[in-house]
Amino acid sequence: MLIKFNLFGQYCNSWPILKVLQHDEVVYEQEVIEQTKIELDLPATHIQFGMSNKSFGQNRRWDTKMDSNRNIIADKIILINSIHLDDVDITHLLSHIKYSSLEHGPLEVHDKAIRFNGSWSLDISNNTYDYIIGVNNNIANEINKDRKFSYFSNFSIVGDYSEHHETIEKIKSYLK
Amino acid sequence: MKNILIAIPQLEVHRPPISTAVIAGTLKKNGFDVKCLDLNIELFKQWGSDDYYHMSDIWESNRTITEEETIRLQAFIKKELLVHCDNETRLMISVFTQNSHLFSHIICEMTRDTYPQCEIVIGGQGVTTKNISESSKFGEIMLKANLVDYVIYGEGEQCIIELLNGNTSYPGINNNDKLLQIPNLDDIAFPNYDQYDLQDYDYLLNKPEVNIVGSRGCVRKCTYCDVAAFWPKFRYRTGQNISDEMISQYEKHGVNTFYFTDSLINGSLKAFRDMCDKLANYNQTHKAGFEWGGQFIFKPKKQLTDDYFDMIAEAGGNTFYVGVETGSDKIRWEMDKKFTNEDIDYHLHHFQRTGMHCFYLMIIGYLTETLEDHQDNLAMFSRWQKYVASKTITGIDLSTTLGFLPNTPLSKMIDSHKVKFLAKEYDPLGNETVNSMSWVSGLNPELTFEERIRRRLEVHEYAMKYKWPIWRGPQRLKSLYNLTKLFKEGTGQRVSLVNIN
Q: Could you tell me if B20 and B108 are in contact, meaning their C-beta atoms sit under 8 angstroms apart?
């Protein structure tokens, strides 16, 4: 699978590092220096990515700096312009997948900014599109839970095919 | 006379009905008063979603109505309609499809019983519906049973004015022979929603949305389609007129979302471009945020430039329904569709680039379909799965299977392709007829009825395997099940209109 990152790294003491792992093995670990485009051709399987080098007081170093009024004046952040997986933009999905932060536990990231060490984990197996569709369906089904639709409407139920399978089996048994 | 104009089930509840809104606009424009009632949305509101949708199987002829349901429906009609009627009323009923036949029948019987002098008029596409071998259309059946006084065939806007002015011999009134078509669609009044509470509807996007008609007829003559029989000539409104209507609904009701009911929205490229230009300008100056969609035709890519897609997106074009029909270029060509899988690739690429969406409309089991064509159908799902993932493709309707509609190019191939229909059924008056989907062709003997159903199911299974969103999936499979049952048993009966008290 081809994963394309379009990122912006924000400096504070040093540049942020993007770390990409597959099955706990690091497959990429590089600084994101301002506007950065990264393309990785990887096996279609489980993938994790996130920031790995932000310091929160270790060795007395803070990668977030504030003035006397507690306004942030510098911060180590990776801003996400876009992430494409096999030519499909998945940026919007990231707010629906928890970011596992080492400092704060699971987080919902709604502003496309990585502010903590940790990673998103995409549970891909073989087919990237299957994975993306699965996440999209969960979002759609959550929105339309318990709602009914007219025959003439342009709404499609997604993901749950149980009723389809049941009728298909009935038809097949009739044709035997 | 007091005019009452009603919309009835089965209609969707996600937008107000345009048919009665157009007629209301026409009547107002010509100086007639009219009371508009939407019994469909009333039923939805009063019975609640579960009970309302439980009736769908009845409207779709999958089961008969129970006595209890009949009594409940009659009480509803009495309370919501008959209280407004008397013997001085002219009751005008919009019959959208055959799924409205039973409700129409019940209303007409009750009105006749209560107010014998009430003049009853029916119109709409549903009055002309009939099966491939049926002799009578619904309108004729209702006239013969003396349940209605007038049936309006074809385009109703002019006919209804003639009828109200006493010209009952005008073509189209109780006479289907020489229908006149409105030459200039720009002359038709804009839909009038003044008597509809636009907050009543169960909008899909949780914001008001209305229908709009930009054209009538089609530029194509696809073999399976009967649009040309109803509207032989493709007519379209000017881009200016269409955008004026949309802007007027936006300024009057705050509606910025529209669904075009046209057979195809981009039949006239000139009108389509004009409309897009005007909407894009208005969007820019007024921040109206228009969103619209409808049925759309994919054209050969050599006829288009890339900026065509940007133009549509900037004007608010959002979701389009495309008769892709098959994954086989050969079959699509035989259907007279005139575009290829490569053209589809081109459209999908630009739809994804510009953030637009499409639904596929399919017909599985075409008259000449071979096993190789079937493999092409199966190959579609992996080929275009990427666009499902990007939500460029937001649904696919696999339909039931190919049926023969009257007055289509396909119906003229029945003899040359040695088509035989295998299952009988009975029309609403009890006359024997054939099921139009239960066919086999002598020229394509490998495509037996069972094989056609097997392929249809396999396509469905592939759609699920590649996680495509299947539009109307359970309903289509239910129809397929009923068709299979009918085939196995040889004879079936559609829900009868007679013997309902």
A: no
Q: pLDDT grade, residue B108 (50/70/90)?
A: very high
Closest among B258, B259, B260, B320 to B289, alpha carbons compared: B258
CB-nearest partner of B475 from A136, A148, A151: A151
Averaged over A59-69, what is the pLDDT? Answer: 94
- Give me the sign of the Cα torsion angle A105, A106, A110, A113: positive
User: B35's torsion region: left (phi>0), alpha (psi -120 to 50) or beta?
Assistant: beta
The shortest C-alpha distance from B48 to chain A (Å) reads 11
Q: Does B460 touch chain A (CB under 8 A)?
A: yes
pLDDT digits (tens, 9 = 90+) for B267-305: 999 999 999 999 999 999 999 999 999 999 999 999 999
Interface test with chain B among A83, A85, A128, A133, by most B beta carbons within 10 Å? A133
CB contact under 8 A, B464 and A161: yes
Alpha helices in B257-356 (DSSP H): 269-286, 307-314, 329-334, 341-354
Contact B89, B115 (CB under 8 A): yes
Strands A25-31 and A17-22 come out as: antiparallel
pLDDT band (50, 70, 90) for residue B423: confident
In this prediction, residue B206 has a pLDDT band, given cuts at 50, 70 and 90, of: confident
Taking contacts as CB-CB distances below 8 angstroms, the residues of chain B near A149 are: 14, 204
CB B427 within 8 A of CB B134: yes
Closest CA to B186 of B57, B275, B83: B275
Give the span between the Cα atoms of A140 and B390, in whole angstroms: 14
Contact B406, B226 (CB under 8 A): yes
Chain B, residues 253-292, CB within 8 A of chain A, namely: 259
- Cβ-Cβ contacts under 8 Å, B293 against chain A: 154
Query: What is each CA distance from B191 to A10, B23, B195, B234, B237, in whole angstroms?
Result: 55, 7, 11, 21, 14
Taking contacts as CB-CB distances below 8 angstroms, the residues of chain B near A158 are: 469
For residues B228 and A163, give the distance between their C-alpha atoms in angstroms, rounded to a whole number: 36
Q: Does B130 touch chain A (CB under 8 A)?
A: no
Question: CA–CA separation, A120 vs A19, rounded Å?
Answer: 11
Which is nearest to A135 in space by CA: B390, B52, B275?
Answer: B390
Cβ pair A82, A35 in contact under 8 A:
no
Reference B131, options B500, B441, B474, B421; nearest CA is B421
Cis amide bond preceding B10, omega within 30: yes
Smallest Cβ–Cβ distance between B453 and the set A158, A163, A175 belongs to: A175
CA A173 to CA A170: how far, in whole Å?
5
**Predicted TM-score (pTM) of this structure:** 0.88
